[in-house]
Each structure stands twice: as C-alpha cells, then as structure tokens.
Known about the structure:
Blueprint: H1 20-26, H2 32-36, H3 61-70, H4 99-105, H5 107-115, H6 120-143, H7 149-170, E1 192-199, E2 206-215, E3 218-228, H8 233-250, E4 255-260, H9 263-270, H10 279-289, E5 294-299, H11 306-317, E6 322-326, H12 335-342
Amino acid sequence: MDRNLYVNxxxxxISKTWNMAKLQDLIAPEDIPRILGLHxxxxxxRDSYIWAHTKSGNYSVRxxxxxxxxxxxxxxxxxxxxxxxxxxxxxxxxxxxTIKQVLLECPPTYQRAKELGVMEEAIRDFPWILWFxxxxxxxxxxxxxxVHPADTLQLACKEADFFRIARAKESIIDSEPPLIDPGxxxxxxxLLTCQVDGSWTGEGTLCGIGWILxxxxxxxxxxxxxxxxxLSPLHTEFExxxxxxxxxxxxxxxxxxxxxxxxxxxxxxxxxxxWPAFASELEDYNALKLGFSRFFLDFIPRLNxxxxxxxxxxxxxxxxxxxxxxxxxxxWFSSVVNRMFLA
Length: 343
C-alpha cells in the first residue's frame, strides 16, 4: 500500500463518488460502510477538522467532559467530576441556570455587583464586555491577531446598545398590517411544493428517502430511494433534500418550495458556519440552489409530511438499493398505503 496515498485518490474524479474497487482493495471491510456514509465534496474543497462528539462538528465543553469521562484514564484515581447535574441557580434558585440568566437575570448577582461599588453602566454592559474580552483572547490565541483593549471596550458597549435598542423595538406593537415580501411564496404563481423526508436506523446498513411533488394540493410526482447508510439521521435528511434538488433541476423544474419535518435541517441551513460536520453537503446545497429561479425551504409538522415519511420508510424497509420516480407508487405497495396517495 502506498504510504503517501491521499483520500481524494479513493474518489472517482468523474462521478465524484467513492471508488468501490479501490476501497475494497485498500480498506478493511468493516470500515467501508462508514466511509461510504461520508459525503465527498464535488469540488474537492480543502480538508478541515471537526469534533466527532457533537452533531454539528463543533466542540462544546459538555461534549469534552463526556469524551474525557469515556476515555481511558490510566492510573489516575482522582474522581471525575463532570458537569453539574443540578441546573438550579445557587444564587437565586431559578431553574435552568444559563449564562444569560447569570449575567442578565439573576438578582443576587446584580445586587452583589452594586455592593462592590460597580457603576450602573458597567453592570449593564458587563456581559458584553466579558464576551468581547473572550473574543479578543481567541483572536490572539488562534489567529495571532491583537485587538486593543480600548477597541474591545468600545465594541462591547456598542453591541450592548444595539441589544437594548432591538429589545425596545420588539416591545412596540405595530398596528399596521405586514407588507407582503415580493419574493415570498405567496407571490409566485407557478410554485410547486416538494415534501421530503429521510428514514435512518442505527442498526441497518441502508437508509431511505421519500418525496412528493404537489401543485395546488394535487399529487404530480413522487419518489423513493434506498441507498447506503448515512452517518446520522440528520445526514439522511440533508441527503434527501439534495437528491430532490438534483432531480428537479434535471427535470427543468426551477420554482420549488421544499418542505421538511426536520427542524434541525432548517436550523443547519440558517446557520451553516456552526455546522462544520456538514461542510461537503452545504457546498453541494449552495451550488444546487443557484439552479433554481425560486427556492424556498420551510419546516412543517410531521403530521403534514406523512406521505413523504411513508415513502422513506418503505424505501429503507425494502433492504435493497434502488430508486423509484413516478406519478404513482410502486406495484409492491399495499392497497392500504396506495389509498394514502390517492386521497
């Protein structure tokens, strides 16, 4: 085996998918399914690091505690403390102690600061000052970039002012009816709705996706697909969206409102920088999105997505890799299930 082999040499440069022949030749059989669950980058973007103990790929103190607790500790006989399990604030007794609660909402903390002679303005801006000091420290440690203390203080106070202004605006009740956004769903006449869903289990080697295409509540098309297991349920939900985006653009359908019952997927797409574990998927998503004239993605309750959910589960239960795209369900569906799509 070539010791200087790179990962991209295991990826087919034409299809941008894993080269099964090379994987079977070089990789232990038990590791191949996990590799196949990874989504290769279509543009061969730069590699990066992720933290494997969180869903997003970002490090958190909590996950660090539990990773340390689970790791071998040698001969050390000191007890592992771990994070506190009691979430009650020891100062005011409020449940669910958080940073926001401690710095902004805990009366004893505020009172103690006043007793120490801290000025009212400093108490009011303290959370932001603390936060910007931390940001300046991180810039120095990780980016070798120095921020002058006066600039840090000025930025913190300005951010605190912005926060208070925003809070004040939220408290004002606007009596005027909301204006319709010219780019909103209601203004697009030929907009189709595509509901998507994924099905994943930790024990299986395959996962399933399902989707339906609707126009004015009428079913136009549907699809289901079974393929190799993704790394997680969220990866499967994302893959379901990407598959339908590729398919619809190939069918020259460019005005689509996608709907998903996966709240985490919409959060991921709203804050992509916070999810480094999905860098390759996000890259494909952004590239595919450019192909649509009108593109929307909305969260819907699971009860409103039962047909796509049914298709995804049926695809996974089939236990063989296949795609199906048609205006009707496969002939192996039961009559009871078929009635769901004919209704």
